[in-house]
Design a protein that fits this description.
The protein is mainly β. The chain is built from one helix and nine strands. The model has no long low-confidence stretch (mean pLDDT 94).
Amino acid sequence: VNLPGGDGLKTVSIKVRDDVGNESLTVSDSITLNTTVPVVTVTGPDRSKISMVEGFQKAVINFTADVPFEAYKVCVVSTVSAQQEAGIPIPTEGGSLHTSGEEGGYPASTNIEVTITGADLACASPGDGVKIIKVFVRNASGIWSVV
């Protein structure tokens, strides 16, 4: 069966006939193909350096996605081009907030405010130095953002 190309509703119908001409009822099923990769826009951070020292231990970023999404995670990655499976999620045990979400049903353009603490960043990526933080969102089709 060859389905029409591109995203959108795809329907397959089938009717079978035996060797003496008896036919079944037509049965069909549909799916919606969505291969669009979500685009995430990040604003911030409100500070470019964080540490474990009081007054310098938190940074806040905000993000939105251009499509509805089901889940998100904020990760430390080794390169700007890294994809979500290579990311190390930032934990919340040290006070970070909203570094992941699996609730589903986030509408497009929902603003999520993320707080990252120095303690949690150090757990995800030990040692001093520049860290690359990326936000990944997953749409209803299971496709993760890449940028």
